[in-house]
Amino acid sequence: MKFIILSLALLGCVLADVSELGGYDYHAPAATEVHGDFGGEAGYSSSVPVAAAPANTYIPPAASAPASTYIPPAAPAPAPSAPVNTYIPPAASAPANTYIPPAASAPAPSVEVAEDGYRYKTLRRRVYRQRV
Fold first, then answer.
1. At a CB cut-off of 8 Å and minimum separation 6, what does 120 contact?
2. In Å, how far are 34, 40, 44, 45, 46 from 37, measured between CA atoms?
């Protein structure tokens, strides 16, 4: 039994060794030949205009930054005035109490739900075998 297992393992290692294969030697794609005339002048023509050679001209230096001037700090904000004691009248009185009869009691639930809300009380059905 050990011999069969070892021979299968050795066979698997031999079959798994693919180092002698050249798997990544792909050939370059074949060059395509251009047939026919595509119009236009002979050769390549660019539709982008070509700028003329630069000319030597004098460009004056940029204007200097304006001179810094002294700006005094902003005046402090005025202190808030002290609160003034004024009379505020009391709020309007609450409405008078009147008798309101109690609401009618809710009807009893038709199904008693368990505390967790998932189990319901069910009636067990008794199935009697009919003996023939």
1. 111, 112, 113, 114
2. 9, 9, 12, 14, 17
pTM (whole model) above 0.85:
no
120, 113 contact by CB (below 8 A): yes
Tokens describing residue 106? 């809710």
Query: What HEC string does 39-74 produce?
Result: CCCCCCCCCCCCCCCCCCCCCCCCCCCCCCCCCCCC
Q: What is the pLDDT of residues 46-93, one digit of tens each?
A: 677 777 888 888 888 888 888 888 889 989 988 888 888 888 888 888
